[in-house]
Write a structure and sequence with these properties.
Elements lengths: L9 H4 L11 H8 L2 H10 L3 H16 L6 H27 L6 H14 L5 H19 L6 H21 L11 H19 L6 H28 L6 H25 L6 H16 L14 H18 L19 H5 L14 H16 L5 H24 L6 H10 L6 H25 L5 H15 L4 H18 L5 H19 L8 H25 L6 H26 L12 H23 L7 H19 L4 H8 L9 H20 L10
């Protein structure tokens, strides 16, 4: 009898995963014009230290040069740029003061802040990591100059790339102004068409998740454009108002589509063709043309056709509606203000203290508490990074007094818990460093003169945007650039030491990063799953208990909040499943729990659409019973010791009355209880009934 093949463990397979992404040619051109030319300018003017610092700043900014609009680029590059300059100021000040062993507690403190910032969103997480890296390099690289001058050079290098980002961009499409924002909204319609085309098949739920991600990116782009208008104290332009209206129409159409997807029936191709016509109209500035004919085969299809008609009306207008016309506001995902400066208002914002405003405040307040630097997740992440950085700094100072910075700098890019599985990052970092050192050494044998490090730095900068596909390739690009800086800075024999230091850093990170209290995948994922279940419960409670005729914008806000929290939980669970410790995790099936919670949100959305079309509303007791059951499951997952106290509430689900609006929701709740019972002993298993 042939032996069944064993599946490769996730932690062993993850280092070989490769992302399939389009080549960002504009970013490649910007990368080639950043670090290399800046380093060459420093060499040509006889000020190599200035060239090294400016090139270092442009390299750190290049890591954040990702696709998006110009305004999202300003946020994603600008905030980490300020953090990098601050880190260089701190590090250079420590070097000027001759801190030596005082570097250990100082870098421990900076590492704690950097690690704790991982819970505050990707932009702040990148800012914290680059602040820590710049602090280490500023404290260790023997470059002349006052601390504030070094910080200004780093900031100038970041701003140079930001300037290129504003100048070197893809050609503007035929549609006119707001090219990046319109492209982001058009992507929503494309993702919606893909989801409708996948309805009734195995790819329906992944397509819906891609649709949610597209909504988040488009919301950020539209909101940043509106925020810019307010900061400049100028009224919103016609194009901005029209785009906000069309994005609001897209959001309403997506809600109706989720209800349509929930029916799990294949749809005619003409249904998916209509959103694609909207996407093409946004990109070209033309008309969407003829849309699919309406039909009333179900409540979900009727809601979709009504939202489709509203979108067609929004596209047909050449002038925006007046501010007082009651145009639906664009809903905000929770925590988005943390990434773009705290803006909560939307176009045609509701009156003060309206239900939508109160929902925004509640979601934002709870999200900020969950992302607090001093919360449980922030403390865990911060302590893990701080211990690794302090330990690597102490070992580096013991091994050598000069050029000690490479070891803790390597640890900085390995130990951050939100960058991927630790074992995978460690393996790829070592392989990428060795490859980069060998390439740099080979280039030194072939090339001569004082200019060749600038050429290597330029090649690394051009490779960096493409290298986001794989961490090892990204490490190769960064290693080539950093070795070029170090060579110009006066350490031409540094290449061999880098392999030794990287080996030590990888070993330390694997040991310290897998200590029980510092790297518990279940603990990290459990916090995100609990937050997602609570966001799901808030949305379900609003759907089942809201008064008839209540503002639908509040429902959109809470639904987006639930989807966003579930997306963050899914990302954390996927990372934890590929950790080396995942095989010994007592709760390995968090992804299944998250999938069940996503289906509850989908079912609740379908329930809301049915209620809008006259379905019988559930009784207050039935609605409260379902909401309390979901809340009890979140309590039990949050603290298993409270599981016994939650058994009674969770066990009250029982039989569901014959009510179309509750059947699907209750069925998904029952399924979630079964998954949660497997994942955590504090949740009772589903009843036999």
């Amino acid at each position: 009898m042939p032996r069944a093949q064993r599946a490769v463990p996730a932690w062993l397979a993850h280092p070989f995963r490769w992302q399939r992404l389009p080549v960002p040619w504009a970013a490649v051109a910007r990368g080639a014009l950043c670090a290399g030319p800046l380093l060459g300018a420093g060499v040509a003017t006889g000020r190599p230290a200035a060239g090294v610092l400016a090139g270092l700043g442009s390299m750190l900014a290049g890591v954040n040069d990702r696709p998006g609009t110009r305004r999202t680029g300003i946020v994603h590059i600008g905030l980490p740029a300020l953090a990098s300059a601050l880190g260089m100021l701190i590090g250079a000040s420590l070097q000027a003061a001759g801190a030596h062993w005082w570097l250990v507690p100082a870098l421990f403190a900076v590492g704690f802040v950097s690690g704790a910032g991982s819970v505050a969103g990707p932009v702040r997480s990148n800012a914290g990591m680059q602040m820590l890296a710049a602090t280490i390099l500023g404290a260790g690289m023997p470059l002349p100059g006052a601390p504030w001058v070094k910080a200004l050079y780093v900031l100038a290098g970041c701003l140079w790339l930001l300037l290129l980002r504003l100048v070197l961009r893809s050609p503007r499409p035929a549609g006119g102004a707001l090219s990046g924002e319109r492209a982001a909204v058009a992507t929503v319609f494309d993702a919606l068409a893909d989801a409708l085309g996948a309805a009734g098949g195995s790819g329906a739920e992944p397509a819906r998740r891609r649709l949610t991600s597209a909504l988040d990116r488009a919301d950020e782009a539209v909101r940043l454009r509106r925020l810019t208008s307010r900061l400049l104290r100028r009224p919103a332009r016609r194009e901005e108002l029209l785009l906000a209206e069309r994005f609001a129409a897209a959001t309403a159409l997506c809600e109706a589509s989720v209800a349509l997807l929930w029916e799990a029936r294949p749809l005619p191709p003409r249904v998916a063709d209509s959103p694609r016509r909207f996407a093409e109209a946004l990109r070209s500035g033309g008309s969407p043309g003829r849309l699919s004919a309406p039909e009333t085969s179900s409540a979900a299809r009727g809601a979709f056709d009504r939202a489709l008609l509203d979108a067609a009306v929004a596209f047909a207008r050449s002038q925006p509606l007046p501010e007082s016309s009651g145009r639906p506001p664009v809903p905000a995902p929770p925590g988005a203000e943390a990434e773009a400066g705290g803006a909560e208002e939307r176009q045609a914002a509701p009156p003060p203290r309206s239900p939508v405003r109160r929902a925004l405040e509640v979601v934002s307040r709870r999200t900020r508490r969950g992302r607090s630097l001093l919360g449980p997740a922030g403390r865990d992440y911060g302590l893990r990074v701080a211990v690794c950085i302090a330990a690597s700094t102490a070992v580096a100072l013991l091994l050598r007094a000069d050029h000690w910075y490479w070891l803790p700098a390597t640890v900085t890019f390995l130990v951050k818990p939100d960058l991927g599985p630790l074992f995978s990052r460690t393996v790829n970092r070592f392989a990428g460093t060795v490859a980069g050192v060998l390439l740099f050494a080979g280039a030194g044998l072939v090339l001569t003169g004082s200019w060749w490090p600038a050429l290597i730095a330029g090649a690394g900068g051009a490779l960096l945007p493409f290298a986001t596909r794989h961490f090892a390739l990204q490490t190769v690009a960064i290693t080539l650039m950093v070795l070029s800086f170090v060579h110009v800075g006066g350490d031409p024999q540094a290449a061999a030491e880098r392999i030794v230091d990287t080996s030590i850093a990888c070993g330390m990170v694997l040991v310290v990063g897998h200590l029980p209290r510092l790297a518990d995948p279940s603990r990290r994922v459990g916090q995100r799953v609990t937050a997602a279940l609570r966001a799901t419960e808030r949305f379900l409670r609003h759907v089942l208990q809201a008064e008839p005729g209540s503002d639908p914008a509040e429902r959109l806000v809470l639904r987006r909040a639930a989807y966003r929290a579930l997306g963050e939980a899914r990302a954390a669970a996927e990372t934890a499943s590929a950790e080396l410790l995942a095989a010994r995790d007592r709760n390995p099936d968090r992804l299944t729990v998250i999938t069940a919670a996503e289906r509850i949100v989908d079912a609740a959305t379908a329930c809301a659409v049915r209620l809008d079309h006259g379905a019988r509303r559930p009784s207050p007791d039935d609605a409260e019973r379902l909401c309390r059951a979901l809340s009890a499951m979140a309590d039990a997952l949050d603290d298993p010791r409270r599981g016994a106290a939650s058994d009674a509430a969770a066990g009250e689900l029982g039989p569901v009355p014959d009510c179309e609006t509750l059947t699907d929701v209750a069925g998904e709740l029952e399924r979630l209880r079964g998954y949660a019972a497997v994942a955590d002993p504090g949740v009772p298993p589903p009843s036999a009934s």
